[in-house]
Amino acid sequence: FQTQLDIAGLIYTKPDNVTEIPVKEFNGLSYNYAVKLSGGNLEIRYAIRPIIKELFDRYEKREKREGDSILHPNKIHRVVSRWMYSKMSGGKISQQEVSIKYLKPEIIKTNIGADVGTIYAGSVSPEYGGQYTFGLFVMLHKDNVGDVYIQYLFEKESEMTDVFKEITGPGQLMYAFKFK
Asked: What's the average pLDDT block by block, 10 residues per block, for the chain (180 residues)?
């Protein structure tokens, strides 16, 4: 996990109110680290995706053709986010149905050092979430550096708002990551 953080130019400050838990394998969808809120029904899974130099090299050296649909490495998060959220739902939500909202740039730039941040909420399949049926998903992107995909998993959608209020203050889970 620390190696991925270093490559992606991230600092992670583990909040006091969480316990590290084992990473589970899931068909085609991986994450690097997971924690559980102490005394709460919330699990947070983190997927760190550094944007390595080789991605830029391949993008620049590709054979460019009319109608080229190859995404620049700084834009890949637009597709990966939708794919991940669809996959977490067990395919119940198609990539086209995923309705991503953009976070205010000034807030994520100031508090996290990211260039782009998105948020999406939706159902989670039992295969991926286990006891958790609903998720709030956040993507943070810093140009030329990397992406962080944060999955907040709740047992019930009805509990999400109250639990999320507990974790969004300064020094809390929502701000556990900061780009260098």
From this structure: 90 87 86 89 91 83 80 88 89 86 91 92 91 92 93 88 68 74
Distance, CA of 62 to CA of 72 (rounded, Å) = 11
What is the maximum alpha-carbon separation in the chain?
55
Q: Rounded to whole angstroms, how far apart are CA atoms 50 and 1? A: 12
- Return the HEC string of 14-34: CCCCEEEECCCCCCCCCCCEE
This prediction's pTM: 0.88
Query: What letters, b where the CB count within 10 A reaches 16 and e where it falls short, cover 54-88?
Result: eeeeebeeeeeeeeeeeeebbebbeebbbebbbbb
- Nearest Cα neighbor of 31 from 48, 15, 44 is 48
What are residue 157's DSSP bridge partners?
none
Sort 91 into a burial class: Cβ within 10 Å, 0-12 / 13-18 / 19+: exposed
Strand-pairing partners, residue 67, are none
